[in-house]
Amino acid sequence: MGTLDWSQWFRLEGTPFAALPHFITSLAIGLLMGVERERKTHPLAGIRTFPLTAMFGTLVALVGQGTQSSWPVATGLLLTGLLGFLPQGSTGSDVAEPRTTTVIALVIAFTLGVLVGQGQGALAVAVGIIATALLYLKPELSGLFNRLDRRDWLSILQFAALSFIVLPVLPDRTFGPYGALNPYEMWLMVVLIVGVGLSGYLAVKFLGERVGGPLLGFLGGLVSSTATSMVYAREARAHPEALGLAGSVIMLANLVLFLRLMVLTGALQPGALGPVAVLMLPALLLGLICSGWRLRQAETAGSGPALTLSNPSELKLALGFGILFAVVTVSAAWLNAHFGRGGLYVVALISGLNDVDAITLATLRLYGQHSVTLGTVAAALALAVSANTLLKFALIASLGGRQLAWRILPTLLGSLAGLWGGFAALVLLSN
């Protein structure tokens, strides 16, 4: 499936050469991997050994099918692995290619040949391309991951453990006041938020020193628009020559917030995405218009400070967000039950001062339980974003000074105007 049927093209069915296309596919896979190995200094195997090994895998697979035995494949795999123990001979050089990688690659080539012989040619070709890419891109991959320090790797491992070990074992049922707490759903929200932040954090870690202000603002906004704003506000005060770059990074990081909220809504409640997009898109577009000429100035700005952010997958940050989300969820459910929409709006204003994601997830959860309407969701999000934006502006002004505050003020005001303009449009459409 997904490959050309060479047997029909060349009318090989029913002839002694019916299996020939399998060997041609194995030959191509082996050549692909062998050419990459041939580039190395005195490799154990190269442009001839790899194709022969792949075709050997196809041959033993066909023999095994004919004899209905697994011994030919097992014996072939053992013989391929034993190639690593053969003497390499005189290299004429003090530096030789390490044998382990080539031996493992040979075993993979043999196994891919077996897959071809078993009729899995498309899968074998795809895996062969991936394996060759890993072999070829060793310098790039090594340089990329050397940018991560021990603390980063520890945080990533923590995130992986909490996502793929802890999450599956949490009970997927509601309990607590108003049935507002569901351990599985709550931790799933933590994984979602931390995953988005981790993607931006790794992008900043890998690319931060080589990108300009606009892209740096976008990446920083994925991690945390508040943290990014604080970092560059302090930089603008300490180094006035970085004012232009700092303003551009802060403006775009805060505009990314609207994209984040639309992505979260689409992932959790696709039915609410339309109204939320009507709310967020005008804020994003008007903010971009107000900051457009400032962002163009950033293209010619010099390099700025390294954007140092906390890894969002660190255990304390993940648990902190989980606790905040639980508190906001219970408060929203309680106030909504006793005071209706007004109670939810109070929670949105208060929690929005600290974090918009938590109230967004809590409100979307209430909508999924049919406890609130789309109009209530939109109003709560508008209030939370407004409170968050105003607090960030106050912090930026106090940390970065008056010049930075005036530089970013049009963008923040424009985005808020677009936000409430979108909300007004929603109200008119609902009426």
Q: Tell the overall outline.
A: elongated
Helical coverage, percent range: over 70%
Tally of strands: 0
The secondary-structure element order is HHHHHHHHHHHHHHHHHH
Hey, roughly how much beta strand do the residues contain? under 5%
Write down the overall mean pLDDT.
Answer: 75
Euclidean distance between termini CA atoms: 53 Å
Uncertain regions: pLDDT < 50 for 5+ in a row? 89-97, 299-303
Content-based structural category: mainly alpha
Query: Can you summarize the main beta sheet?
Result: none
Q: What radius of gyration results from the CA coordinates?
A: 29 Å
Structure description:
The structure is a single chain. By secondary structure, the chain is mostly helical. Helix content is 75%, strand content 0%. Helix 15 (341-352) packs parallel to helix 17. The longest helix is centred in the last third of the chain and has 29 residues, at 402-430. The radius of gyration is 29 Å and the shape is elongated.
